[in-house]
Amino acid sequence: MDRPTHLDSQGHAHVVDVREKAETHRIAVARARVRTRPEVARAILDGQTPKGDVAAVVRVAAIAGAKRTSDLVPLCHPLPLTHLAAEFAVDPRGVLTIVVRAECVGRTGVEMEAMAGASIGALTAYDMIKGLDREARIEAVELLEKDGGRSGHYLRGAGERIALVDRPIVVDDVLAAVAHPSAGGQVLFLGTVRDHADGQPVTLLEYEAYATMAVAEMGRCVAEVEAQFPGVRLAVTHRVGALQIGDLAVVCAASAPHRGEAFGAARALIDAIKHRVPIWKREHGPDGPYWVDFVDARCTGEEHLHRADRHHFPVGHGHEHHEAKP
């Protein structure tokens, strides 16, 4: 077994020498949650808490905490952070969510900065509401995403809940990825290949993607929507390659304690995927194949303008299928 990196030859703790590591753009996103009573959450939303604007104070505290990480965690390097952002969301049922994004250009990662910021934000949220609820508790401090450095990209749950495949999508697998005992509502969106677009016949569809980029961006969409809808769990599988009429192109699943959040999160996720994920579509019809939203050398300028108006992503070729539990 290799010697631990944070111990010297005599077994003493030290800060790792990173001089030989490459400087890269590094990103980390972390989340913390505070659980309180619904009436406290409503007081925060209504601006009726004793200590004032909870959201503003928590965001500033999270940023300040991230900047002091090397003072708080002994073996962390002081880092020249290039960007810090903190978000604070309130679920009226009593869940407060803090999400911190940290970035730098350096030789070591910023995961601990994001985690420290989320943790300090959660502690501050508790401090702001303890006069109303001393039984509030901090839970689920976790890394959502990191990128940069030798270990590459990491996204929490990506292996189970986010997939790009070149085979038929199994809907039950996507739905199973969001199932859990607290899910009172489950929603599916099924994007299906249809036989026409803008009044023109379509006989076949092809999707191509930069796999790593597409999976990473789908993961970011999932993380952002889950932060927007606390308590929601999401999954998405997108298919690439040649698809026949009626084939599933994309399946999104959402689960939540109540169906309203599941519906809202599923819609937000498919809208984000439509606008942001680098997946390209080529339609086949009577005039041959052509890339949608790209200049086709066979087209005149007027023809291209017509074709460029078509949807870039499969949502335009889908229908919504909802399954919800009351």
List the helices and strands and how they pair.
Elements: E1 24-35, H1 38-45, H2 54-67, H3 69-72, E2 81-91, E3 95-106, H4 111-129, E4 137-147, E5 154-155, H5 158-161, E6 162-165, H6 171-176, E7 185-192, E8 196-197, E9 200-201, E10 204-209, H7 211-228, E11 233-239, E12 241-243, E13 248-256, H8 259-276, E14 279-285, E15 288-291, H9 301-308, E16 319-321
Short description:
The protein has 326 residues and is an alpha+beta fold. The protein has two domains: 132 residues, Molybdopterin cofactor biosynthesis C (MoaC) domain (Alpha-Beta Plaits), CATH 3.30.70.640; 164 residues, Alpha-Beta Complex (Aldehyde Oxidoreductase, domain 3). 30% of the residues lie in helices and 32% in strands.
Count of domains: 2
> Regarding CATH, which class of the largest domain?
Alpha Beta
Rounded radius of gyration (Å) = 23 Å
Distance between the termini: 53 Å
If helices are DSSP runs of H or I spanning 4 or more residues, what is the number of helices?
9
Portion in strands: 25-35%
What number is the mean pLDDT? 84
Overview of this protein structure:
By secondary structure, the chain is of the alpha+beta class. It folds into two domains: 24-155, Alpha-Beta Plaits (2-Layer Sandwich), CATH 3.30.70; 158-321, Molybdopterin biosynthesis MoaE subunit (Aldehyde Oxidoreductase, domain 3, Alpha-Beta Complex). It contains nine helices and 16 strands. It has helices at 38-45, 54-67, 69-72, 111-129, 158-161, 171-176, 211-228, 259-276, 301-308, and strands at 24-35, 81-91, 95-106, 137-147, 154-155, 162-165, 185-192, 196-197, 200-201, 204-209, 233-239, 241-243, 248-256, 279-285, 288-291, 319-321. A five-stranded antiparallel sheet has the order 2-3-1-4-5, sandwiched between helices. The N and C termini lie far apart (53 Å).
